Amino acid sequence: MSVGEINDAQAALDWLRSRYPGLPYTLAGFSLGCALATCSAKKIFIQSTHDEHGSPPEMEAFCGQVAEPKHLVWVEAQDHFFAGGLDTLESEIMRCVQA
Q1: Closest of 23, 27, 31, 60 to residue 41, by C-alpha
Q2: In a 3-state reduction of DSSP, which class is residue 44?
Q3: CA distances to 28, 38, 58, 81 from 6, in Å
Q4: Containing H/E element for 67?
């Protein structure tokens, strides 16, 4: 993730916090859009079991380097775009957000 992308995410978060100070918030990204390794906020990584850009061992290693709190969820799907697993992906997102 580039410095510009991190700055963009921080700007969005700052805007949300100033505009809606009493509400909970969630930032989400696709692919490397959530790779804020030093962020101390709760992080949830949802990964396809057959992601051609991040095998299970690679994703486990990556998550091992990310600051707590974090959670890794696997979705049985055919590829990086969750082919064959979009319904499960949606269910997992809803479950994680409500937890």
Answers
A1: 27
A2: strand
A3: 13, 11, 22, 23
A4: none
Residue 54 is encoded by which pair of tokens?
């991040």
Q: What proportions of the chain, in percent to the nearest 5, are helix, strand and coil?
A: 45, 10, 45
Specify the pTM: 0.74
Q: How many domains does the chain contain in total?
A: 1
pLDDT tens track for 51-83: 999 899 999 998 898 889 888 999 999 999 999
Write the DSSP assignment of 15-29 as a string of letters. Answer: HHHHHSTTS------
**Domain range enclosing 47:** 31-98
For the record, the structure tokens of 80 come out as 């990086």
Does 14 reside within a domain? no
Q: Does 70 reside within a domain?
A: yes
Name the nearest CA neighbour of 30 among 48, 10, 55.
48
Does some domain include residue 11? no
